[in-house]
């Protein structure tokens, strides 16, 4: 038995209800500004651009207040006091255009309507422009332009409709008066509002595009960082897997290399070998997760400091003069540090080839007490040269920083006064003479 309690579908939105809803939306647009009271061009980079709206509104108010008063008294025969009140009410709110154009409209529009009724009561000037005076019309167009630049399309339509409706009503009140200014303001107002709205929507689109580009740039930077960390983790996997393989081989061969082991010790070595072998399997699964789709693992041995001479020679053949200074007193270098130091030098040289072709470059790798120091310094570009690599080994400084961070070191990069660039890394090392983390052993036969 169906227990559905769904009632009949709601009735379709009729014409009258849609009209009422649209009228409510238009009324809300007229009564609520769509933007905070921040000045126009508040985010402009230059001071004169931020001050420009204030200069414009001051000029408008200083121009239209006296002009409106003069026109009302001389052409329409309005008394001085009344003309002064109407002139101030119709033009002084222009000072609000930089911050609150819609609120200025709330003052100017009623003042213009009151002014039209005052002019209707005058016995003189029946052939003068009515209901809107010439200075009132021009000032109102500036007001509409400010509204179009700041308000939404719904508010703009509402302002235009109310303005046109007021002109039509005033014409019906006095059909014998020349009401051409009402039609003129309606037509010109529509043009001005369309121009202001188009400029506003274009600015909104540009801001949204800039925001999207900022978000995209941040996402690209984050993706670059994650990709570089994944690549470094894949490389460090080989280092960890090597040590696990050494543990497995040593634990498996301990009963044969050491005679007289107790039974319990042999069982312990067997358990250690089994745990190490299981860890190797987990490492393989971890590597499959880190490896990107469609890519295969690098079967070549991971490079280290012993490959720097070959790297320097290859860079010289690419047209970049390189002076390599490799200290002979480095001592035992952990595999992770060995790999990181090589990659830092490799990426630094690749950057020189890409960004400063032909620049003479000095590479120094030395031991400073308990730190490995890697220094790559190049001068300004000395000419054009084809790049050593069409695709870099990583993501530039992002990869260098990640490698140094993972090994607990520090990295300093930056331009030099002569136009060159410097990369300096300090990576912690175990104390000189300390035993290695694991005795050397042949690599395991199983493929990692």
Label this structure with key terms.
448 residues, alpha+beta, Heat Shock Protein 90, 3 domains, five-stranded mixed β-sheet, 11 helices, 58% helix, disordered N terminus, disordered C terminus, kinase activity, kinase, Sig_transdc_His_kin_sub3_dim/P, phosphoprotein
SSE layout and pairings?
Elements: H1 15-31, H2 47-74, H3 80-91, H4 101-120, H5 134-150, H6 153-173, H7 180-257, H8 263-290, H9 308-317, E1 322-326, H10 335-355, E2 361-368, E3 371-378, H11 397-406, E4 410-415, E5 421-428
Parallel strand pairs: 1-2
Antiparallel strand pairs: 2-3, 3-5, 4-5
Helix pairs in contact: 1-6, 2-3, 2-5, 3-4, 4-5, 5-7, 6-7, 7-8, 7-11, 10-11
Folded structure, characterized:
The chain has 448 residues and is of the alpha+beta class. The chain folds into 3 domains: 21-215, no CATH class; 227-290; 305-428, Histidine kinase-like ATPase, C-terminal domain (Heat Shock Protein 90). Helix content is 58%, strand content 8%. The protein contains 11 helices and 5 strands; from the N terminus they run αααααααααβαββαββ. It has a 5-stranded mixed sheet, covered by helices on one side. A hairpin with a 5-residue loop joins strand 4 and strand 5 (421-428). Helix 2 packs antiparallel against helix 3, helix 3 (80-91) packs antiparallel against helix 4 and helix 6 (153-173) runs antiparallel to helix 7 (180-257). Residues 1-5, 385-394 and 436-448 have low confidence and may be disordered.
